[in-house]
Amino acid sequence: MLRQFLTLPQARGVDLDSPDTTVLRRAIIREKPFLERLYREWYTTLRGAVPGGPGAVLELGSGAGFFKEHCPECITSEVFFVPHVDIVCDGCRLPFPDASLKCVVMTDVFHHIPRIRDFLAEADRCIAPGGTIAMIEPWVTPWSRFVWGRLHHEPFLPDATDWHFQEHGPLSGANGALPWMVLSRDVQQFRGILPNWNIDTLRPMMPLRYLLSGGVSLRCLVPQWSHSIWSLIESCLSPVMKHTALFAHIVLRKQSDRVDPL
After folding, report:
1. 56-60 and 75-78: which strand pairing?
2. Under 8 Å between Cβ of 93 and 82
3. Could you give the dihedral angle defined by the CA atoms of residues 176, 129, 186 and 154, in that order, rounded to the nearest 10 degrees?
4. What is the pLDDT of residues 16-70, one digit of tens each?
5. Angle 129-135-141 (CA atoms, 0-180°, nearest 5)?
6. Can you say whether the dihedral through the CA atoms of 186, 189, 109, 170 is positive or negative?
7. Mean per-residue pLDDT, 188-193
8. What are phi and psi of 61, to 5 degrees?
9. 3-class SS of residue 251
10. DSSP letter assigned to residue 10
């Protein structure tokens, strides 16, 4: 009963894998000032991870967001056609020449890729030396195990033995624990697959504000004016973030071919 009451009327009974739902979610983010501020904060953070110099910037899973407002030169993409995206493409089969990208950006996309090894291989092929993969993703902590495991509709399976998961659909298929599995639990396996990549940034963050915002399905639980207060509270939780974070800011960097002179 409580979840039914909190669910936004326009988000009830939607097909998660329909392009119309992605368009709807874009509108919901825009209509919820508290949530929109979170996304702007994320996009500012991700924009800061885009290297300078030549090469294209690709955003995967752009349909519901507006990262392009923070990075006008980026190529936006989605797995199906929706307005506001430049191309339709699959992250496991990127339509770009070798070493033509300088950055791939994602917001809540990595954990929806069922064949993550294929994506990593494609990213390694397409991203030039010195380039990055920058993302905001769910993370595994004692607090997130409760929130993502019990209060969220997406699968959250940190004990899964395999990175691969069943492909139910482009959005309904997921394992919210996948970023943590690949880059923390199984990090030695990741390094064996991509030995020429470093984990530049892995910062657990945001234990409260996304939950309080209601995300793209539920009503916001706090008034818009309280955003700065909750941001301050989260800052105070920094010493215990490894126990409380719901998300992580992650930047992977491909090693440069440049050799410094002796």
Report:
1. parallel
2. no
3. 10
4. 899 999 999 999 999 999 999 999 999 999 999 999 999 999 999 999 999 999 9
5. 125
6. negative
7. 97
8. 65, 50
9. strand
10. G
Burial 53-70 (b: 16+ CB within 10 A, else e): eebbbbbbbbbbbbbbeb
Q: DSSP letters of 147-181?
A: HHHHS-SS---TT-S-S----S-TTT---TTHHHI
3-class secondary-structure state, position 81:
coil
| Cβ–Cβ under 8 Å, residues 29 and 216 | yes
Instruction: Please report where in the chains the tokens 């950055």 appear, as a residue.
Output: 103
CA distances from 165 to 112, 113, 175 (A): 9, 9, 7
Locate 141 and state its tokens: 């902590």
Phi/psi at 59 (5° precision): -105, 125
pLDDT 10s digits, 94-136: 999 999 999 999 999 999 999 999 999 999 999 999 999 999 9
pLDDT tops 80 at residue 211: yes
Strands in 75-78's sheet, in edge-to-edge order, are 87-88, 75-78, 56-60, 101-107, 127-138, 247-254, 197-205
Mean pLDDT of 73-81: 97
Mapped onto helix, strand or coil, the DSSP state of residue 97 is: coil
Separation CA 241–CA 128 (nearest Å): 33
Angle at the Cα of 200 (from 69 to 37), degrees rounded to 5? 30
**CA angle at residue 18 from 17 to 20, to 5 degrees?**
140
Tokens of 130: 């010195």
Q: Is 84 left (phi over 0), alpha (psi -120 to 50) or beta?
A: left
Strands (E), 46-91: 56-60, 75-78, 87-88
Cα within 13 Å of Cα(114), Cβ side: 11
